[in-house]
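Why predict the complex rather than its parts? Because the way molecules touch one another can change local conformation, and only a joint prediction can capture that. The input here totals 806 residues.
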Amino acid sequence: MMDSVEKYLADILATIRPLPARELALADALGAVLAADVTAGHPLPPFDNSAMDGYAVLAADVAAATGEQPVVLPVRGEIAAGDTGRYSLVPGSVLKIMTGAAIPAGADAVVPVEFTDSGAAQVAIRQPVDPGNAVRLTGGDAQPGDVLLTAGTRLGAVHLGLLAAAGHGTVLARPRPRVTVISTGDELVEPGSGLVPGQIWESNATMLAAAAREAGCPARRYPIVRDTASAVLAAVQDALDGADLLITSGGVSMGGEHDVVKAALATLGTVGFRKVAMQPGMPQGFGTVGPASTPIFTLPGNPVSAYVSFCLFVRPALDALQDSYRERGKPSQAVLAGPARSPAAKRSYLRGILDDAAGLVTPVSGQASHQLASLARANALIIVPEQVTSLAGGETVDVLELP
Amino acid sequence: MMDSVEKYLADILATIRPLPARELALADALGAVLAADVTAGHPLPPFDNSAMDGYAVLAADVAAATGEQPVVLPVRGEIAAGDTGRYSLVPGSVLKIMTGAAIPAGADAVVPVEFTDSGAAQVAIRQPVDPGNAVRLTGGDAQPGDVLLTAGTRLGAVHLGLLAAAGHGTVLARPRPRVTVISTGDELVEPGSGLVPGQIWESNATMLAAAAREAGCPARRYPIVRDTASAVLAAVQDALDGADLLITSGGVSMGGEHDVVKAALATLGTVGFRKVAMQPGMPQGFGTVGPASTPIFTLPGNPVSAYVSFCLFVRPALDALQDSYRERGKPSQAVLAGPARSPAAKRSYLRGILDDAAGLVTPVSGQASHQLASLARANALIIVPEQVTSLAGGETVDVLELP
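Output of the joint prediction:
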């Protein structure tokens, strides 16, 4: 009996425990997920300050200023941004003030330098200003106690800027999971090396580590592991260090003695192997290993199967490790440009080229699960339901866009 | 006279020269842009191989097999994946074969293990197969000389997998530009440290470096630089090492002697300062510095101005450095949920909360350019054209979604 895609994903999500939240430096927190609300501890801005370069004044002192009859006032000093002195305005005078500098006591407005003759000892002001002009008030962006960011926020650049502006050097958040990908197989050779017949170049670990990075996660590729259960076991145990999620690729087909990943994991952790009613990607394995119950996916060795499995199962698991899983948007719909076939009782994910503007999706030629070049030409997966075995051109289908 | 947003961007793009293409290791090439077509040097797959675990046969030998009258044949050996021996099938016998193993000479099909009794010395085959069954043919994914990926492709996970599968250990591509962000100001203090009145926590470099990373680029934040032209000049010259694009923030207002970034760059490079007819973000500076003509943006110090400028000008420049600039999709449209105001003769980018499903966008409260908390609440920018100074609720507006 095969599991449905939904049943399998639900079991994965029920197994995963979110990573513990940690205090992360802001430079390390892009893409981390806030574990608690962040409230302002100070007003933002922290003090009244000037929005422009100009002159701090009492607005009443310049109320009569015109181009013909400027108000001329003595300049009693200058306040630069970052000047921590305490200044007071003497009525009937001005203080020169720079953008961001603290408004002196007694001033209630800033006259922009453009309204003046830029005088140094005295200044001719040609235009009046309202009280409050060009003054950024203390707390005008946020008051102490205001919730700046809510728990569950995935931290983007602006959030990090706001945390910095509010004085936070670190933030309590769940980091992006670190992913290690292990590829197994005696037939595998490093890309860039020579081949003899019977061998192929390793591609899955390269692809899956990059897919994890595309999903925002730090990811690395473990050196190629040979086809013995003991080598796989040693690699998995070694890779546990520094990984929050492990992926293996290969060694899980249905043939028995060469399924070294199955054999290795039988002695370690909780990995269960099962068939999922999908194509490509039927043979799946998932569980946890090691002292931290690190999730491990044993993906099929066929590259297209491995990639589709990554999109459907590993990506949601990465979100769940940050306690940030939410169902992604429903598939969009498009009209099939040509016929398509699908095995009975399995949901197919066919590679297609989606023309969004035209609302058309064309299945690519080469739908076998080893055909990676055809996946590279595709930009979408066409979903064919379990009970459908053939579709004609012109029918409407669900499509998932690829990253 | 102010420049339009379009004129300013066009001048930037006309100035930037793409980074030279380099041979990048696949592990470093995610997001890099291919500088030349990649063609297959070998067939993919490189040899006929089995798509399943089973038995290599001559299809004619098992044509009569049924459940009641299995065809029983001797098993003359086994071929594992990665086995580089050269095998030949003796007609009237079979060879056990694993997924990915080379098809022996003389065989024309694979009987899946599920159709058999899994015999070791001899096997009972209960079902016939067509010639070619479960055989992946040499070159079935790509033939030598086929274009696998075209110049200009931005390399994603699947592309990297395909390059690996085709045997490429490196790829000739333009890497993601490395960005360094320099924040200047005597008022700036490291987040996490204490403040006295007159000081604020540095946030722009944190935010802009994260924005560059959100755009896929390696980015770092330079230590806070004090308000002297010589300090800024030294920082820019130091930061040139290891950066493909520099950003400064602050030190470019209209007041004169404190505009240290302007003063520093007057002696170095080609940076021009100008006013762009937009709000926030009017004072802009762009040019090149150093022996590699490294692009440098001198962004305004107000955080919202700096961020909007990053989105409108720096992001396209990052794409142009990879020779991969293309105009991003047109803004979408939404109905304004409440009134909005905009200065005359400037294009406004107002912060808004876009409800995509409802097609409604609501301006957030707090539109001044220092109000970062309101930017963190927004998910879109509402574009108000130059000639429009006020909009009523219910009008249709252009919106740009934020990352």
